[in-house]
Amino acid sequence: MARYIYQQNNWTHFTWNDKSISPLLGEVRNLQGRLIGKMSAFGFSLQKEAVLNTLTVEALKTSEIEGEKLNRAQVRSSIARRLGIEISDWVYSDRNVEGVVEMMLDANQNYTHPLSEERLFAWHSALFPTGFSGMHKIEVGKYRTGEMQIVSGAIGKDKVHYQAPAPQTLKEEMDKFIAWFNNAVKIDPVIKAAIAHLWFVTIHPFDDGNGRITRALSDMLIARGDDTSMRFYSMSSQILKERKKYYAALEKSQHGESDITHWINWFLACLKRALISTEIILQSVVHKTDFWGKYAQTPLNTRQKLMLNTLLDGFQGKLKSSKWAKMTKCSADTALRDIKDLIEKGILKQEKSGGRSTNYELADD
């Protein structure tokens, strides 16, 4: 008896129950259409800001799913530079940040370009520019030559969740996947994104980075479905919130038959929740645009602009003068002068929480 889906005869001839998935697919397609319609009513500058926010979140969350936390300011700066968007709080980005951004933007901006082995190898090389994953040297820019297992638990009490196909089969498996990916099959692009996600991660062709590449491939097909490179919602952000259920759905399908109705339904439900939650991101973008429209003629120095953008982008924690000084690389006295000036202009206010230290927040909030 076959243990894994790829051990089934003709395992890539996936089937699903149309009657089961159709209602959810209809809801997702409706939400996508409404969102794109809503964004098309906004000006180009607001659209660019929304795309910048969405892609920043996507890059951060797809890495966080794998346990890697990237620097938000670096990610945002890298994306802004590549898209030609001017931001006041630009910073240099590390090589690993640049690699994630390169892959993600190639998938989203060049979604009409065909997939190829060379393109996948370039993505993988971008993700691991040093040839290392953490402390471990890995095979970069080529399919793995060793066995691959997904394992959890302490040594001696470890549990094998999944054993990927043998390395000698990878070339044939991937050639078949790439040909299908590029073929204009009559499948809804969102359904195709769900299938591609399960198919690629089941093959697990690389030493590391399979999850991030899988999600980039899904985004690429979803972009084809939307027929736009403008990204206004983040699937990875929602997957991170549901990480345990995500891995459980994958594991169940990888141990099942070629009927993948369960997986497609989970994928569609997750995408639906991603579309609904993106309203929060869009509200923050509209708020930020309105804010700068209101204070366009107000004289502000570079430090003040940087910190205001940081607050508008969702600053984590409490803003104190000491944090201001550290983040803007100025003295404590200068930080306090900057803050008092913004209070006098009605832009900042002291929090009412009290306590021994003074915290500040946007007056509009």
Topology:
Blueprint lengths: L17 H23 L3 H21 L7 H12 L11 H15 L7 H11 L4 E2 L2 E2 L11 E4 L6 E5 L6 H13 L6 H15 L6 H17 L8 H7 L1 H12 L6 H34 L7 H11 L8 H8 L3 H13 L3 E3 L9 E3 L3
Antiparallel strand pairs: 1-2, 3-4, 5-6
Give an overview in words.
α9 packs across α11. The radius of gyration is 23 Å and the shape is globular. With 365 residues, the chain is mainly alpha-helical. The strands form 3 sheets. The chain has a two-stranded antiparallel sheet. It folds into 2 domains: 283 residues, Fido-like domain (Fic-like fold, Orthogonal Bundle); 62 residues, Winged helix-like DNA-binding domain superfamily/Winged helix DNA-binding domain (Arc Repressor Mutant, subunit A), CATH 1.10.10. It starts with 17 loop residues before the first helix and ends with a strand.
